[in-house]
């Protein structure tokens, strides 16, 4: 049993069973993992292994059937401002400008503080949309709309940023740009991140640690640390893709995926 740590995300013996059409579907079984504060974790695994379900439980949108989840020592049992979620389908408000979209979360959440214009500007700049602050979502590309969603979520300074296949709908080039943009911002802001992905390259590029889940029911099969990246030149995708360790891990995870496919057949 994993001891919950007070610093970071701690998932301890978590299981989830859905009751559907009169029968029980066990989506996740006995998941225990730790994501230290300031790190990027990736939930990777075949379709249906429970990645989104686990992320939704960390967001507080679902409750575990067994086990506990804590963030920085506090129990997670409902959504909260300490966590911010970004979905794949750009969740910006079409009737609000970029600036107002980013400000929206602050406005509804501001208890005492007045709307902080500086924060809005800071995050619009961080995602490179300063020239589009007064534009509306329909005037933006998919990648730009996803930047708005990221800026809006980060403007609330969440302790943990949760992302469910955030770049899955983007073309490969934009996807690479968005991955670099995300890493640049979260390193600077020191935000912890948990990302759902089913893309091996993305998982190894983004993650400090990759949690590989197997399915039926979803179990934590392997935890892969990517310490090898610290010896590579920073922000150099080519060096990353050509490194021996990346190639080794990519092949290893590909085999894990294939094993899952065989098990399901
Ligand atoms: N609300 C629900 N009611 C019943 N079953 C559910 C519900 N949500 C998820 N499941 C089941 O739980 C399992 C895990 O689903 P989940 O969406 O978390 O997997 P995933 O790994 O994110 O899949 P994908 O990569 O395809 O998005 C699946 O068998 C799914 O059918």
From TrEMBL:
Q: Listed GO molecular functions?
A: ATP binding; ATP hydrolysis activity
Note the InterPro entries from the entry.
Answer: AAA+_ATPase, ABC_transporter-like_ATP-bd, ABC_transporter-like_CS, ABC_transporter_ATP-bind, P-loop_NTPase
Keyword Ribosomal protein listed? The answer is no
The protein's superkingdom reads Bacteria
User: Sorted alphabetically, which Pfam families does this protein's record hold?
Assistant: ABC_tran
In terms of Gene3D superfamilies, this protein maps to: P-loop containing nucleotide triphosphate hydrolases
Q: Which residues cross the membrane?
A: none
Q: Which UniProt keywords apply?
A: ATP-binding, Nucleotide-binding, Transport
Kindly indicate where the leader peptide sits in this chain: none
Question: Which residues does the UniProt record annotate as the domain ABC transporter?
Answer: 9-240
What family does this chain come from, according to its entry? Belongs to the ABC transporter superfamily.
Q: What is this protein called?
A: ABC transporter ATP-binding protein
Species source reads Marinobacter salinexigens
């Amino acid at each position: 049993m994993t001891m919950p740590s007070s610093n970071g995300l701690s998932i301890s013996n978590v299981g989830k069973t859905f009751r559907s059409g009169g029968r029980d579907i066990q989506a996740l079984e006995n998941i225990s993992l730790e994501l230290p504060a300031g790190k990027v974790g990736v939930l990777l695994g075949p379709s249906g292994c429970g990645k989104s379900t686990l992320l939704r439980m960390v967001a507080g949108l679902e409750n575990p059937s067994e086990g506990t989840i804590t963030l920085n020592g506090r129990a997670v049992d409902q959504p909260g401002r300490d966590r911010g979620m970004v979905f794949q389908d750009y969740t910006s408000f079409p009737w609000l400008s970029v600036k107002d979209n980013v400000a929206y979360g602050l406005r509804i959440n501001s208890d005492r503080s007045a709307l902080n214009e500086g924060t809005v500007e800071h995050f619009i700049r961080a995602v490179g949309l300063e020239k589009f602050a007064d534009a509306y979502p329909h005037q933006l590309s998919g990648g730009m709309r996803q930047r708005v969603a990221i800026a809006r979520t980060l403007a609330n300074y969440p302790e943990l940023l949760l992302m469910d296949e955030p770049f899955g709908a983007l073309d490969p080039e934009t996807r690479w740009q968005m991955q670099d943009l995300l890493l640049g911002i979260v390193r600077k802001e020191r935000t912890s991140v948990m990302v759902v992905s089913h893309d091996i390259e993305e998982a190894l590029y983004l993650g400090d640690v990759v949690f590989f889940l197997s399915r039926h029911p979803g179990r934590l099969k392997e935890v892969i640390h990517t310490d090898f990246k610290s010896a590579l030149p920073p922000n150099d995708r080519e060096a990353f893709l050509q490194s021996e360790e990346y190639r080794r891990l990519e092949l290893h995870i590909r085999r894990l995926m294939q094993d899952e496919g065989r098990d399901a057949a």
